[in-house]
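During the no-cost extension, the postdoctoral fellow (Dr. R.K.) reprocessed legacy sequence entries with the updated structure-token encoder. One reprocessed record is reproduced below for audit purposes.
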Amino acid sequence: MRQTKLVQAKIRTLFNRNIITLLYENCSLCGSLTVRGIAKIGEEIITMTKLQAKNIVKHFDHNGTSVIALGGINLDVQEGDFVCIVGPSGCGKSTFLNIVAGLEKPDSGEILLNGNPISTPGPDRTMVFQEGALFPWLKVIDNVEFGLKMAGIPKDERRQISQRYLDMMQLTKFADSYTYQLSTGMKQRVAIARALAMDPEILLMDEPFAALDSQTRDLLLVELQLIWEKTKKTIIFVTHNISESVILGNRVVVFKNRPSKIKKEITIDYRRPRLMEDENLQKYYHQIVEELKNEVIAQIKDENP
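Re-encoded structure tokens follow.
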């Protein structure tokens, strides 16, 4: 059994390395990739705060009892940052993301975008959900164009924009397919292309890879790193998968059990692209596990008093 697992791990590692090689050699992103955190000599790196969460509190009613989901979240996200949020199940990660998106309102506190308070949805923030939320009666290209069409972008311009992101997500040959004809992984690519086509200031991602098989997820983890390097988008990514957070994030923000506050921010200061099997990432993984361990135990006790 142990030998079988080792063989499977080696095959998977080889598969992922081949993916990275192919993407770097063949995809349209490769011409302008840079590695963040490494500045040229004499080049000054200046970061600007893109989004601030100030003491966000949110209550829910549960069988007539008020439950505090978020107990005062304070978070600064810099321009071009890639922040991953992890925490025990039910701690309010998705609720916080919905508040940032303007889909829910906090009971107290505020969200500032570029220094201005926000409380409603807007084109400056786009959400990618776990299920993709695509329209099955529309073709792939029409799904990608949908937001642009609603925004009144002329047909020729929105076609040009959508083609760019279809190419970026390696979906050009499927532009005229219907989404129900695609695999789950390809549907998520369409959802990401649609979000990027709107050119939001912040991309919000709520467990977008949770339903994918391991090989498809590993491929999209690499592609998302490449896209982030290319577009320099500010991304907030919610996940239950600690390995995902280590691979993707510049920072991993650990939420406590309810009522949620930020327990720890862990900086992932490591080169890109990152692979699931890279042993050098284990130290970050174990740091996060150590921070989460007691929170998960507390969450289990809350659910089983």
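The beta strands are 49-62, 65-78, 82-86, 108-113, 116-118, 125-128, 202-206, 234-238, 251-255, 262-267. Confidence is low (pLDDT under 50) at residues 4-11, 24-43. The remaining legacy entries will be reprocessed before the final report is submitted.
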